[in-house]
Amino acid sequence: MTTIERLRGGLIVSCQAYPGEPMRHSETMAQIAASAAGGGATGIRAQGIDDIRLVRERTGLQLPLIGLWKDGSDDVFITPTLRHAIAVAEAGADIVALDGTRRERPDGLSLAETIARLRDAANALVMADCGSVDDGLAAADAGADVVGTTLCGYTGERPRRHGPDLEVLAELSSRLEVPVIAEGRIHSFQDAVACCDAGAFAVCVGTAITHPASITRWFAEALSEVNR
């Protein structure tokens, strides 16, 4: 079974922490990844070279590992250059996730050039994190193996909804031959099921599983509303 096929119909858990948070530590992220694997995840998504290496070590080859490297403060910061993409692959990622939008990349390469050169340099698949239908179509044409809805609502092309952008997900799933992974603002079981109903090949959940500060805030705000 291929790496991508192992993800079909399953849950990918994104193990990431924001800068400055107590959980921003590779050991912690690796422990969360191992726990997610024990809970039935079909894949792991990890950010940063150290995290990718340690997650790979802890989970071995039992789960496909999607890796990315967030760097910079400009619009394109998810694995923004070919150099970043090669480093992610060399750290142990089976699938390199990178910015799959139509925006200019910091190193001046097109998405198609980045994907082609990455394949020449490393044996890795590519997940294009997209923000719209047009992004997804262009990313597939550029050679991406998987398209994700990760950036919907964050690039200015689509409104930022409370939940996942099911409209983009449904259209991409119906028009593309490559798998489409639902990612972004999937906060509940119901959201995940809705993504599957919209045609998602797999569902990637991060915050609702691996970010205690956000989960705590959701509960605290709900209780605050009730007790006003």
From TrEMBL:
Top-level taxonomic group: Bacteria
EC code(s) of this entry: 5.1.3.9
UniProt keyword annotations, A-Z: Carbohydrate metabolism, Isomerase
Top-level enzyme category: isomerase
Pathway named in the protein's UniProt entry: Amino-sugar metabolism; N-acetylneuraminate degradation; D-fructose 6-phosphate from N-acetylneuraminate: step 3/5
Keyword Isomerase carried by entry: yes
Pfam families tied to this protein: NanE (PF04131)
NCBIfam families: PRK01130.1
Biological role stated in the UniProt entry: Converts N-acetylmannosamine-6-phosphate (ManNAc-6-P) to N-acetylglucosamine-6-phosphate (GlcNAc-6-P).
Stored PANTHER family: N-ACETYLMANNOSAMINE-6-PHOSPHATE 2-EPIMERASE-RELATED
Similarity comment text for this entry: Belongs to the NanE family.
HAMAP family: ManNAc6P_epimer
The protein's name: Putative N-acetylmannosamine-6-phosphate 2-epimerase
Gene: nanE
